[in-house]
Amino acid sequence: MKVTAMHSTGFLRTRRGAQKTEERLPGSPYKSGEYPQGVYAPGDGSVFVVGKLYTGKPGPDHGVVYRRTAHGEWSIEHILEERTFHTITGRGPKEIYIGAIGGVVHFDGDEYAMLDLPYPMVNGVWRDGNTIIAQAFDGSATFELADGEAAPSRRRVEPKRDPYSFDAGDTHYQVFERSVEVGERTLSKEEEKEMRDEIEMMKKGLDDGSLKVRRIKRD
Question: What is the pLDDT of residues 107-148, one digit of tens each?
């Protein structure tokens, strides 16, 4: 299977009143592009962005955590191989949770630790009041998160539908990517299978309503 090769570049947009800025995320060490998927501002002036780094090789891509300090300095905080990151939430700078393929990553202000959960697609995390919820892609498993621990929950909650944005007071944060064509290449059998599996998973999500089409105005 031949596909158009694309290179994606990640950005953070900040809007405060009429003032708007855009910042380029730090470049991927793999030089194959990145795709930001979640943003969270914990209240200390810093901003966390999560997503995936394209490796440019067959197989799963890698999860990444970016951090911008209150002084505006960017860094790549954490990379987890073969487990991409999709969402992020928390209760401040010392209790942050990241939804990942295969579980949830907990950040306590010093270290990142993987919480493996008994469902491979628990990749959605969000805050419901003061409760942190983690939920499977298809809604079939739900957990409550606290102090770096996960407990099964029977709560029926509606997930936050736009993990790409976050509001902190009068400041609105949004992550997005810009892609350009960089040629054409032939997928390996492993890559083709991975792509077809992802397409089937997306079709299933659209059919059962667990996946919503999202449109963003990028002005």
Answer: 999 999 998 887 767 788 999 888 999 988 777 889 999 999
Q: Based on the structure, what is the number of domains in the chain?
A: 1
213 within domain boundaries: no
Give the tens place of pLDDT for each residue, 57-93.
878 899 999 999 999 999 999 999 998 999 999 999 9
What domain range includes position 86?
A: 2-208
Strands (E), the chain: 2-16, 19-24, 34-40, 47-53, 62-68, 74-80, 85-90, 96-100, 103-107, 112-116, 124-128, 131-135, 142-146, 149-152, 165-168, 171-186
Task: Give the count of beta carbons closer than 10 Å to the beta carbon of residue 101.
Answer: 19
CATH number at residue 48: 2.120.10
In a domain, 219, yes or no: no
